[in-house]
Amino acid sequence: MSEAITQPVPESPEEKTAGPWREAWNGFRKSKAALFGAAIVLMFVLLAFAGPLIAPEGINEQDMSKRLMAPSAEHWFGTDDFGRDILSRVIHGARISLWVGFFSVIGSVIVGSLLGIIAGYYGRWVDTIISRLFDIMLAFPSILLAIAIVSVLGPSLQNALIAIAVINIPNFGRLIRSRVLSIKQDEYITAAKGIGMKDSRILFSHILPNSMAPVIVQGTLAVATAILEAAALGFLGLGAQAPAPEWGKMLSDARNYLRDAPWTMIFPGLAIMLTVLGFNLMGDGLRDALDPKMKS
Amino acid sequence: MKKGKFWTLAVLLIVSMVLAACQSGNGEEAGTEGESAGESSGGSKTLVFGRGGDSVSLDPSRVTDGESMKVAANIFETLINFGEQDTTLQPGLAKEWEASEDGLTYTLQLEEGVKFHDGTDFNAEAVVKNFERWANGDADTFPYYQSMFGGFKGDEGHVIEAVTAEGDHTVVFTLKRPQAPFLKNLAMTMFGIGSPEAFEADAEGFGENPVGTGPFKFVEWKRNDSITIEKNEEYWKEGLPKLDRVVFRSIPDNGARLNALITGDIDLADGINPSDQATISDDDNLQLFERPSLNIGYLGMTVTREPFGDKLVRQAFNHAIDRQAIIDAFFEGAAEPAKNPIPPSIPAYNDSIEGYEYDPEKAKELLAEAGYPDGFEMELWAMPVPRPYMPDGAKVAEVIQKNLADIGVTAEIVSYEWATYLEKASKGEADAFLLGWTGDNGDADNFIYALLDGDNIGSNNYTYYDNAELHDILIEAQTEVDEDTRNELYAKAQEIIHEDAPWVPLAHSTPLLAGSADITGFKAHPTGSDILSNVDFN
């Protein structure tokens, strides 16, 4: 019923003056919050790549004579219960968290898109099966499902990544499916069918590119959730294993010292908060810029 | 159609209302019980004792775990008691005893006028029936009887020839061969005397409905939550117990348990993190208790798994691990470094042994000599739960992981749920594992034989270490009655173990407990089985 309203106006390729992506960038630039978020994300991405060069120490340089030292000129973020430099560990941790965040989302986008396109385009019983499968997965609280998956596979960072990718599949799947349902009614698809184009070509050259905008928005927001979920699994001991400086695991290791050495908890916690905030702000900005409904 | 829906809804509504009513009824009951349990002053004196895990069974002869003993020690009494805070022999249900010259006959005089909780008389006949019950069992039903008395009726290794009643209040034990720690074994909580009437009527249910002569009677058991026992009004010791009720509550997380103590939900807490010592001493409402040390925490290496079959590798590990750093950081100094498998408080402790020094270079040399100059990869198992002999296994493992990395060995830390951990380790599935032991009778036999003899592979010897020479010495020591000769044998045994190094002995810890400041008369026992009859509130 609402399809008539949400049906997007396909950007006509003739309007070369301002392409859709250019237009989106202009929209994005206007939002200060989005730029701020992008800056945070950029900072953490840089940290992730340049971590080993910047970090003053390695990730596991234990020194029991220096354990639980408060932040000082020597150790800006203090030291943890093994006498390790927390600043160095937080910097190295950026790589782990972003790695899990990006790759789990890429995984769920690929699988989710594929299933979503198939369900949306072919409809009928294929759609029923795939959609019910998504419903079943969405019926579980996501973190519970992730815990179950990790318990089966065994606790490790890689398995945590797989679990997070799996639990996010239905979100992308349903998103794509609904886009496909509306796009396949469009005239240019009908035209493509009319001239005898193959299904695979229609799907991947026409429908998929035209459904990408919401996926990008959802993907950015999903990176934030994925980082949080990875931290939660790490906190529960189901994600990264010692001595990996995963932020959630650092929080969990620090919880005995909450009273006496709060810095062991504050800095990894801040790092999680900032990355998640960055991705959320950026995602919101992207949605405003890319969502056709928002265009005046 | 519509009408049908309406009726379905109406029926559902009624059913759910009825169910809700039932539920709230149950809830109220549970609520009042909970309240009276939490009350520690006023009319009835209830002590709530928070601990790390639930009991397995309340029939102590059927299990070996400390949490079962902790409760059973208050329901059952043994023929001979340990001292208040040591393992000296004190009168229990037997007021005096006498050993024959050759160490083959023990005559025990029993207390008179003692009754079981079910009203039946405690007498020599009851003691005989208890021992007959155990002797006619097997390794599955009474595992600890086997390790302490060498087997069951008909087995060659079985130490006890006969237990006979002479009159109502005299019991005579006749042994096949002398057993030095025999009286100490009798004093172990496992061999508390139960009511023959009760276990004869229901052998299987006895573990859930224990009947003994102890200061407290069993009331109820909510699995994984709490066990309640109440004052035995007929208790034969005048004026005891002082408490009306004791509730043992399981709170697995050390931090959560301490919080429950601070908020007053529980009155006494076991398993205090060493790092919380300061918090407790600073709090005027709390007091700290130290449990005298009778334990060992160690890193075991499964000798049937490569490369740990090689003595040089095991010695290298002993040099590689920085015990002192581990103790300073994760026992907060409430432990002393270990060099032998038995704690120094046991007379047989061999102090002339020089422990392996922390020396990574030496360790590397030994590894190279063993043919692993570049190290190897292995799994390092860490306990998932805090234990009295090691408050935080995961952290200790992380230090060891780093120590091993320094000598080129890559260790992956692995952990399983506690029961699975023990089961898998006992099957020899771990490369190297953290574990420990708390002595049950203060005898060297209860450590060295139980943990490192070939006889106990598959039960408590998780390393699969089996040395024939050591075995002969240990068996000889069991039958040797002369204390000095016996200590010499154990001194030799410790030398062999030191050389073969199946373990990296880490620490002898002093476990900590904390209670509210108004608790009096609580004395923590080294074996972990605290008898609470003297405990009171101010």
CATH C-level name of chain A = Mainly Alpha
Q: Considering DSSP H and I runs of 4 or more, what fraction of the residues of chain A is helical?
A: over 70%
The coarse silhouette of chain B is globular
- Count structural domains of chain A: 1
Note the gap between the termini of chain B. Answer: 71 Å
- CATH class descriptor of the largest domain in chain B: Alpha Beta
Low-confidence region ranges of chain A: 1-7
CATH fold-level assignment of chain A: MetI-like fold
Global Rg of chain B:
25 Å
Question: Which residues of chain B sit in consecutive blocks of at least 5 with pLDDT less than 50?
Answer: 21-42
Approximately how much beta-strand content do the residues of chain B carry?
15-25%
Shape of chain A: elongated
Question: Spatial order of the strands in the main sheet of chain B?
Answer: 8-9-10-1-11-19-12
Membrane topology (chain A): Multi-pass membrane protein
Transmembrane segments (chain A): 33-55, 96-121, 133-154, 221-242, 262-283
Organism (chain A): Bhargavaea cecembensis DSE10
Protein name (chain A): Glutathione transport system permease protein gsiD
